[in-house]
Amino acid sequence: MRIVIAEDDALLREGLALLLRAESLDVVATAENPDAFLDAVDAEKPDVAIVDVRMPPTHTDEGITAAVEARRRRPELAVLVLSAYVEQAFATDLLAQGSARLGYLLKERVGRVEEFLDALHRVARGGTAIDPEVVAQLLTRSRPDARLQRLSPRERDVLALMAEGLGNAAIAERLVVTDGAVHKHIRSIFAKLDLAPTDRTDRRVAAVLHYLDDARRRT
After folding, report:
1. Are 215 and 142 in contact, with CB atoms under 8 Å apart?
2. Global confidence as pTM
3. Cα–Cα distance list, 123 to 13, 48, 104, 177 (Å)
4. pLDDT value at position 196?
5. Within 10 A of 86 (CB to CB), how many other CB atoms are there?
6. In the prediction, which pLDDT does 37 show?
7. CA neighbor of 18 nearest in space, from 121, 127, 110, 105
8. CB atoms within 10 A of CB 100
9. What is the reported pLDDT for 199?
10. Which regions in the chain score pLDDT beneath 70?
């Protein structure tokens, strides 16, 4: 796995590089600003980019803008975004625009090495990794939705883990239940959200997007 890191905080940038190299991952370049990051993407052709949301010169959304441009230049690039705190507008846009090979984590998650590495590998494999705190805040905001009120507390737990990008087996392990129980909860979630099976819609994605879109409308 070839990785480029875009982070303006030198300590965090070098710390990430050391951590990943200690795990035998190939950090091919690090960058402290968006221009250097895009140059590295062009030159090194990485598999994954780890990008800070806020970068110079204004420390607003330069990191996100650069990540979008990097994906335009290299559509197969996986992107794991790091943020100091929950930025709901970006989190909802992240999934609404397509969740494959995308992740959004709070920086504090990096200190939980196993969780951070799991998210990185999940995104690199083509999946999604959304920080649990982001999911919790968005789902809490969306609860006035009438269909959401139909869900049991356990079904909400399952949906929250679905939104993080976990598969059925991982959800079962996290909740300490059987795979069959998770499958039953997901079927119930689809039914309560009026999501009938079709050839054109992935009901799992549709269920998550329903909540995140509702949360965005309420912000």
Report:
1. yes
2. 0.66
3. 19, 8, 10, 25
4. 73
5. 16
6. 97
7. 110
8. 11
9. 46
10. 86-99, 135-146, 198-202, 210-219
